[in-house]
Amino acid sequence: MTTPLPKKLVRGSTSGVAIMAVFDLLGRKWNMRIMWELNTASLSFRALQEQCDGMSPSVLNTRIKQLTEAKLVYTTSEGYKLTELGLSLMNTLNPLRDWAAEWEEEIKQ
Amino acid sequence: MTTPLPKKLVRGSTSGVAIMAVFDLLGRKWNMRIMWELNTASLSFRALQEQCDGMSPSVLNTRIKQLTEAKLVYTTSEGYKLTELGLSLMNTLNPLRDWAAEWEEEIKQ
DNA sequence: ATAGTCCGCTACGAAATAAGTAGCGATTGT
DNA sequence: ACAATCGCTACTTATTTCGTAGCGGACTAT
């Protein structure tokens, strides 16, 4: 006699806590990758597209809009750059690189 | 006269570095969320589904398979749990919670 | 034994998102 | 003037995710 699942809910969305909004944003294809590339260097639209394995420009365009809206990225005459917020996010995400290396070791077996 | 975009490439995929594979995995809807919930408590299929805002069971099922394949999650009689690797991933991802809080402050303006 | 309930999970059509390609108008270089 | 490149949009196709119904197994109550 547990409570049945609620019939309608805002799904996969910012229900309550801030971290959920982060999952929504980063849990979308390309967003982490774009941030990662921009953390290495600020890039023009075409350059960013190339860095991201030639991802389609239509998607790149909407991603840039999202990330700009989220105040993680901004546009300059020299290309797209990370904001302070964007940089701080990439700092917290930085340990992922090392974890990824360990994980790769463990997984190829 | 820059090199034109290569016509075909494995896109959004593990081209070279380990971190790209991580982006592929975590850059999918629900994966981070599932890991996050399992980091708090080990949960049965139905319970996990409820925690994740009632996400569809078909997707949950494929996600569990992926995460199991990736050696981040395993199945027990008491429900799904994080492996050591999964736990270490959540540790590196933990600072995200604080960042999310700061970000929420900055963004609601 | 039978019927009811809950479980993990699958099947399958509908909706949403991403990919792929062509090309426009603006700018830059020759 | 001309060609090349740029950022970006429009549009079609492919892939992913949702939503719902329901199967077979385990457990329980009658």
Secondary structure: elements and pairs:
Two copies of one chain form a homodimer.
Chain A: H1 18-26, H2 31-40, H3 45-51, H4 57-69, E1 73-76, E2 79-82, H5 84-93, H6 95-107
Antiparallel strand pairs in A: 1-2
The first copy, chain A, binds a DNA duplex (30 and 30 nucleotides) through helix 4.
Descriptive overview:
Two copies of one chain form a homodimer. By secondary structure, chain A is mostly helical. Chain A has six helices and two strands. In chain A, a hairpin with a 2-residue loop joins strand 1 (73-76) and strand 2. Chains A and B meet through helix 1, helix 2, helix 5 and helix 6 of A and helix 1, helix 2, helix 5 and helix 6 of B. The first copy, chain A, binds a DNA duplex (30 and 30 nucleotides) through residues 1-2, 11-12, 28-30, 44-46, 55-62.
Q: What's the short version?
A:
2 copies of one chain form a homodimer. Chain A has a domain at 32-107: Arc Repressor Mutant, subunit A, CATH 1.10.10.
Provide key terms for this protein:
109 residues; homodimer; 2 strands; Arc Repressor Mutant, subunit A; disordered N terminus; mainly alpha; globular; DNA-binding
Q: What are the low-pLDDT stretches of chain A, counting only 5+ consecutive residues below 50?
A: 1-15
In DSSP terms, counting alpha (H) and pi (I) runs of 4 or more, how many helices of chain A?
6
Helix proportion range of chain A: 55-70%
Span between termini of chain A: 44 Å
Average pLDDT reading of chain A:
89
CATH topology of the domain at 32-107 in chain A: Arc Repressor Mutant, subunit A
Number of strands of chain A: 2
